[in-house]
Design a protein that fits this description.
The protein is about 60% helix and about 0% strand. It contains three helices and no strands. Helix 1 packs across helix 3.
């Protein structure tokens, strides 16, 4: 069974799986990192989650070009 890595500081982002790193980095850039660490991803509003998802898909699209 895979051990789940807890992210408590921005330095911990490098320890999570590659696919999750971008999500954490965007949350940090948007100033939502502390909120997610304290209360989890479910604590984000629909607008905040959508913003992260939009930036994530935008970056994936640019990477593919």
């Amino acid at each position: 069974m895979k051990k789940k890595i807890e992210v408590k500081t921005p330095e911990d982002i490098k320890k999570v799986e590659l696919k999750d790193q971008a999500k954490w980095e965007i949350a940090l850039e948007l100033g939502l990192f502390d909120k997610v660490v304290e209360s989890g991803w479910k604590s984000l509003t629909a607008r905040e989650s959508g913003r992260i998802g939009g930036i994530l898909s935008s970056r994936k699209g640019k990477k593919g070009q």
